Amino acid sequence: MSIFDYFKPVSTMKPDEVRQFLKDHDQGQFNLIDVRQPMEYKMEHIPGATLIPLGQLSEQLDKLDPAKPTIIY
Amino acid sequence: MEGGIHAWNGLKAEGLPESGMAYFTEAHTTAELLSLAWKIEEGSRYFYQAVASKSSDGELKALCSQLALAEEHHKSTIEELYSKSKNSNGALDIVHDDHSEDIMEGGITVKEALQWANNKSTKEVLEFTLALEANAYDLYIKMQKKINDGDSEKIFSILIDEEKQHLNKLAELLEKKI
Q1: N or C, which end of chain A has less CB nearby within 10 Å?
Q2: List of chain A residues whose C-beta atoms are within 8 Å of the C-beta of residue B100
């Protein structure tokens, strides 16, 4: 068995699909998370995104509503 | 979201080796899970060492050298604790000198990652390595949940804590370089 057999593809969304998704849903219907660094978030971010830097994701999971779809960038 | 903020802004991704792959639960035994962890540590060690030797950024060089040493230490930890484990039935499937199938978390080969990293900025390399460490952190949490023996859980606890520290170190340097 090759080591590659332990991995499977993960589905992702293209930016246009995300734009359409955001257009079709109200803000409270999804989690939109920016996992970059605070300085990058300050410089620009997708409107409505919540900042949770990657290194802090495990401690801030309570900011996510597990019942709603989550988009991460 | 594929391509991150750059793609959102309409910029073409510069071939960032986004893995698009996740570990799945084909591995069942302690030996299989730990062999997979060992191989990922070896792939990461090889990557960090190569980046450290090629980078002209002193701080990136120093951090990658430190991380390469840490990954080497992780491999020894896995081997040592597995040999002492009550559940060490069968040898770990590891080959020390064969880099033909070196892989990093997310199913990316080390060769692909190094090709991509060539001539990339410190910020780009740091963003990529942050994603890798976060994936490794996530992978070890999943492996720990899958394993049901105290000795092996201890191995994964050590790896999880240390991957978290790596994440923090990389994030600190990235914040400095933005």
Answers
A1: N
A2: none
Among A3, A12, A43, the residue with its CB nearest the CB of B103 is: A3
What CATH number is attached to the domain comprising A25? 3.40.250.10
What would the two tokens of residue B50 be? 């190569």
Domain that holds residue B33: 26-177
Domain count, chain A: 1
Q: Report the candidate in B138, B19, B159, B152 with the shortest Cα–Cα distance to residue B87.
A: B152
| CB-CB under 8 Å, B106 with A58 | no
Q: Are B24 and A8 in contact (CB under 8 A)?
A: yes
A5 part of contact set with chain B, CB < 8 Å? yes
In tens digits, chain A (73 residues) has pLDDT values of 565 666 666 678 999 999 999 999 999 999 999 999 898 999 899 999 999 998 888 889 899 999 999 999 9
